[in-house]
C-alpha cells in the first residue's frame, strides 16, 4: 500500500458448479488457471490464498504479510454510511440487510466467514456499495408510498455501485485539477448492472438504482424503471407467482429481454451490426434511458460540469458513449470522435470547447476498498 501497486489479481469462478477454476496473475508473472473443484467459498478462498504464497506464481512470501482484508459488501442499509471494521455486531447487521440484497449479501457473508476461519487473527473491513449514497437528501431517497412503510420496513432508495461512483468522481476531479466543492458531476457506471449518480460538490444527491439494484436503467437482464402496475398484470395474464415475476424482472428482462440475443452488450452490438432490429432497439433503449438520467441529474444539481463514463461498457464502448452524448450539445456536451475512440483508458474525450468535460475513468473499486481498509486498521 506504500505505492498502491497491484501485486496480484484474479477471479474464482463457477463456485459450487462444474468446471470451477481460479484465474490468478501475480505482478511480472504469467497468468495461471487453477482448475479445481470448489464446493463453497471457503474452498475457493483456500485456493486463492495458496496461489498468493505459491513459490512459482505467488505474490507474497507468506500469509504473515497479509495485515488486513477488505470485503466488498453490497448492502449496508441505513446502518452504514461508511466502511467499518467487522465484528459480531457488524456481521449481524449485514445479515439483516440480506433480504434487501438476496443475490449479493449472502455470498459476501460467506466470503467474510471463510476469511475469518482461514485468518482468525487478521482484521477484516466491510466496504459498502450503499455507503456513498447515504448523503442523499430525504426528497431523493423517500418513495411516494405510505410513510409508515419506510418507518417499519426501511423501504427507501439506497443506491448501489457507491464505491465505483466515489472513486471515478474523485479521480475525474484529480485529472481535471478542479476542486470537488466547485463541480457538479454525473457518473455513469455502465456494465451488465448499471447506474448513474448525481455528485454535487463531492456528495451523492441521487442515484438511479433504488431499494434494490432493479430500479433505474435498462440493464443486462434487469428491467429498470417500469410502471409498477405491469407486475400484477403480468402475474395474472401469465399466471406467475411472486417469485417467478421477480425472476422475470431481474434475470430475463433488460437488453436480454428486448433483444432476445444476450445480456452481453458485445453480443448485442454484433447482432445490431448484422441488422437484427431488436438488438438495435435494445441498445437504443439503454442509451436513451442513460441520456434521460443525465438530463434529469443535471437539472437536479442546477447544471453539469463533468460527465464520467466507467465500468465494462462505459470504459470499452466508444459507440455507447457517443450515442448517449449525441443530442446533448445544447447542455454543452461535445464529444471528440477521435479522442473517444479509446477503450479502457483514463482520458478526456470531449472537445476543447465543450462546456462539460467528458471523461473515461476505469473504475478501481479494489483500490478504494484497500484504502478504506488500511485507513481503518491503522
UniProtKB/TrEMBL annotation:
Q: What residues does the record give for site: Transition state stabilizer?
A: 161, 222
Q: Where is the active site?
A: 129
Read off the InterPro entries from this record.
Answer: Ac/propionate_kinase (IPR004372), Aliphatic_acid_kin_short-chain (IPR000890), Aliphatic_acid_kinase_CS (IPR023865), ATPase_NBD (IPR043129)
Binding-site list for substrate: 72
Ligand binding (ATP): 189-193, 264-266, 312-316
Q: Which GO terms describe its molecular function?
A: acetate kinase activity; ATP binding; magnesium ion binding
Question: From what superkingdom does this record's organism come?
Answer: Bacteria
One Pfam family here: Acetate_kinase
Q: Which PROSITE patterns match?
A: ACETATE_KINASE_2 (PS01076)
Question: Which EC number applies?
Answer: 2.7.2.1
Task: Identify the GO cellular component terms for this protein.
Answer: cytoplasm
Q: Which residues bind Mg(2+)?
A: 365
Keywords of this entry: ATP-binding, Cytoplasm, Kinase, Magnesium, Metal-binding, Nucleotide-binding, Transferase
Q: Required co-factor?
A: Mg(2+); Mn(2+)
Name the pathway.
Metabolic intermediate biosynthesis; acetyl-CoA biosynthesis; acetyl-CoA from acetate: step 1/2
Q: Where does the record say this protein resides? A: Cytoplasm
Could you tell me the Gene Ontology terms of the biological process aspect for this record?
acetate metabolic process; acetyl-CoA biosynthetic process
Under NCBIfam families, the record lists: ackA (TIGR00016)
Q: Which HAMAP family match?
A: Acetate_kinase
Subunit structure of this entry? Homodimer.
PANTHER family of this UniProt entry? ACETATE KINASE (PTHR21060), ACETATE KINASE-RELATED (PTHR21060:SF15)
Q: Could you identify this protein by its name? A: Acetate kinase
List the source organism. Caldisalinibacter kiritimatiensis
Taxon lineage: Bacteria, Bacillati, Bacillota, Tissierellia, Tissierellales
Amino acid at each position: 500500500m506504500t505505492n498502491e501497486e497491484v501485486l496480484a489479481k484474479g477471479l474464482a469462478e463457477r463456485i459450487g458448479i462444474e468446471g470451477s477454476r481460479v484465474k490468478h496473475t501475480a505482478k511480472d508473472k504469467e497468468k495461471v488457471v487453477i482448475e479445481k473443484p470448489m464446493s463453497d467459498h471457503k474452498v475457493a478462498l483456500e485456493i486463492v490464498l495458496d496461489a498468493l504464497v505459491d513459490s512459482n506464481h505467488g505474490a507474497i512470501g507468506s500469509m504473515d504479510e497479509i495485515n488486513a482484508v477488505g470485503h466488498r459488501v453490497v448492502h449496508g442499509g441505513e446502518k452504514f454510511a461508511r466502511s467499518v471494521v467487522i465484528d459480531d455486531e457488524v456481521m449481524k447487521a449485514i445479515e439483516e440487510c440480506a433480504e434487501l440484497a438476496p443475490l449479493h449479501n449472502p455470498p459476501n457473508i460467506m466470503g467474510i466467514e471463510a476469511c475469518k476461519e482461514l485468518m482468525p487473527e487478521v482484521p477484516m473491513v466491510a466496504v459498502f456499495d450503499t455507503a456513498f449514497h447515504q448523503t442523499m437528501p430525504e426528497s431523493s431517497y423517500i418513495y411516494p408510498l405510505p410513510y409508515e412503510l419506510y418507518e417499519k420496513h426501511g423501504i427507501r432508495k439506497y443506491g448501489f455501485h457507491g464505491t465505483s461512483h466515489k472513486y471515478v468522481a474523485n479521480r475525474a476531479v484529480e485529472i481535471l485539477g478542479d476542486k470537488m466543492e466547485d463541480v457538479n458531476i454525473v457518473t455513469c457506471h455502465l456494465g451488465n448492472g448499471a447506474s448513474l449518480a448525481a455528485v454535487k460538490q463531492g456528495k451523492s444527491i441521487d442515484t438511479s438504482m433504488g431499494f434494490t439494484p432493479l430500479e433505474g436503467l435498462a440493464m443486462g437482464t434487469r428491467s429498470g424503471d417500469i410502471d409498477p402496475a405491469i407486475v400484477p398484470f403480468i402475474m395474472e395474464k401469465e399466471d406467475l407467482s411472486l417469485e417467478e415475476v421477480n425472476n422475470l424482472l431481474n434475470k430475463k428482462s433488460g437488453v436480454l429481454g428486448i433483444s432476445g440475443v444476450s445480456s452481453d452488450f458485445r453480443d448485442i452490438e454484433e447482432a445490431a451490426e448484422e441488422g437484427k432490429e431488436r438488438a438495435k432497439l435494445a441498445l437504443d433503449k439503454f442509451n436513451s434511458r442513460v441520456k434521460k438520467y443525465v438530463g434529469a441529474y443535471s437539472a437536479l444539481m442546477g447544471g453539469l460540469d463533468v460527465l464520467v463514463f466507467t465500468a465494462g461498457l462505459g470504459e470499452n464502448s466508444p459507440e455507447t458513449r457517443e450515442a448517449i452524448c449525441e443530442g446533448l450539445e445544447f447542455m454543452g456536451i461535445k464529444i471528440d470522435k477521435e479522442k473517444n475512440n479509446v477503450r479502457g483508458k483514463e482520458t478526456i474525450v470531449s472537445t476543447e470547447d465543450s462546456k462539460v468535460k467528458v471523461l473515461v475513468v476505469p473504475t478501481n473499486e479494489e483500490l478504494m476498498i484497500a484504502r478504506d481498509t488500511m485507513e481503518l486498521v491503522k
